[in-house]
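Changelog excerpt

This revision adds worked examples to the README so contributors can see how folded entries look when concatenated. The first example is reproduced verbatim below.
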Amino acid sequence: MEAIKYRGFKIKPDYDEYPESPREWDNIGKLCMFSRSHCFPNESDYKDYDELMKFIKKESYVYCDVYKYEHSGICLNTTGFCDRWDSGLIGVIYVDKKTLLEEFKWVTSIGKEDVLQRLLKEEVETYSKFLSGECYDYTTEDANGNRISGCCGYFDYDEVIIRAKEELDCHIKYLNLEYLPGFEIAKEEG
């Protein structure tokens, strides 16, 4: 990927070679995918989609179906694909009652299902980016090529650039404050 010049510095975005699965994060949804040919997450005790759906509907959980498109790569979504040969239903993502009660007290009951379905959809989109290798990191350098900072674990290229620019803006602000006449940055004692 090409380096980006920003305020006298360089941002070097790149692919994250060792990304952490977003399913290892604190997620609100339980992603349950059923496949004989892939090792997808199944965050439930159920081994079958129909059996799990009976449970989800009985408990009145909020859920979204998960669809897979596979053709020289894998893509997931919650709306389905227009390809009857290479796509189909692969599982479900749902929110259990414990999570609903603990995490979403602030959402009114009228809008709660819409909010939860949007969050579930975003979790599926992020996991799809992970599966397709859309994982990024960045480093920042000064004009002499000295590394200033870096971070990894992003699943959106535009977000990588935004975060790197914010990091450099903070660095530039720090440098300007440090060298203002009569201004000293307090040193930590220790």
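The second example, added in the same revision:
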Amino acid sequence: MEYFSKHTIYIFLTTGLKMKKNITFKQVNTNHPLLGSIISGSIGFPTVKKVDRVLQSYTQPNQFLIGAFASDNLIAIIGFELTGKQAIIKNISVSNDFKRQGIGNCLIQKTIKNYALNCVSLKTDDESVNFYKKVGFKCTPFDDKHGNRYYCHLEIPLPEASSIQQINML
């Protein structure tokens, strides 16, 4: 039997209600024909060379790409590096037609669940920081060569005994 925190159950319920299309999630190969156009939304000033370099990085060990699909069409992607039970999100992007439907949030939650993560971190910008805060990340600002940025970190607690009993009753 699987156990989820109250927060995770809430996320699955609320995001599932927002999505109007049947969305599936699965690992994506770096040569998927739509991958470059989807992932470019998460790359600052994307060029063909930059996108190719990012996609090439996902051929290395412990690098993963998980896609969200609607009717077998790739509509969103999360790319991350996995070290033990910790993941660093390197890229996340949702096709414009599917934004604000909870798909990015679902990608994060599916990654946490499928890889049994206890910690997720990433770096982001002003444009995306509020998304991560809404998901539950703690974000700390810092400056780098790209300007104002944020380091975001999410600790995933182990379920407490009382939460497990409540979840089992659902």
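Reviewer comment on example two: Confidence is low (pLDDT under 50) at residues 1-20, 161-170. The helical segments are 6-18, 35-39, 48-57, 103-114, 129-135, 161-169.
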